[in-house]
């Protein structure tokens, strides 16, 4: 009698990829991993969203210089997307309407968009993931109704997202680089690792409220812990 092999993540969760790279589990609500990379970095008085320009259909590169980042709400909010371009533009238009309705409150607008995206018969067919940011917050919005705010001010989505996220976090913790330079170096690493991401980077940036910079707060807390440990050892 042979024993079954232990279950692995591959047996438990199967993700779908844009371009029909894989099929999702029937009835699964797992988010798609779109063939691109979008990175958001918040540091000091700057927040940057950067994306590559490649559009892929299956194994074919359709276009190398598509703009996946944009400004809305009179330039006070910047965003990037992974997924179908037409779907993402529709969602950005809906988000802008919500921002106007709620006096530019990004969190409230994102909640209302996510609610409609999940329940509306038309919107729930739209296939995209959004990253948006204003002077105070950075958010990920998905069609599952998820609204996620990072603890460290760094967000990455798409097939190259894990590479960009790891690189950006390492650079943020070990250097004093600006948000733009962290984003650019991290995107270069992601483009080297992900075949669905190229080196044609486009970005949008706005001034951030430095008082809400999570990277500075984390560094300050680490410094206090280090100083406390040194005093205890002496």
UniProtKB/TrEMBL annotation:
InterPro entries per record: ATP-dep_Prtase_HsIV_su, Ntn_hydrolases_N, Proteasome_sua/b, Proteasome_suB-type
GO biological process: proteolysis involved in protein catabolic process
Single GO term (MF): threonine-type endopeptidase activity
UniProt keyword terms in alphabetical order: Hydrolase, Protease, Threonine protease
Matches recorded under Pfam families: Proteasome (PF00227)
Family affiliation: Belongs to the peptidase T1B family. HslV subfamily.
Name by which UniProt lists this protein: ATP-dependent protease subunit HslV
PANTHER family assigned to the protein according to its UniProt record, in alphabetical order: ATP-DEPENDENT PROTEASE SUBUNIT HSLV, METALLOPROTEASE TLDD
Highest taxon, organism lineage: Eukaryota
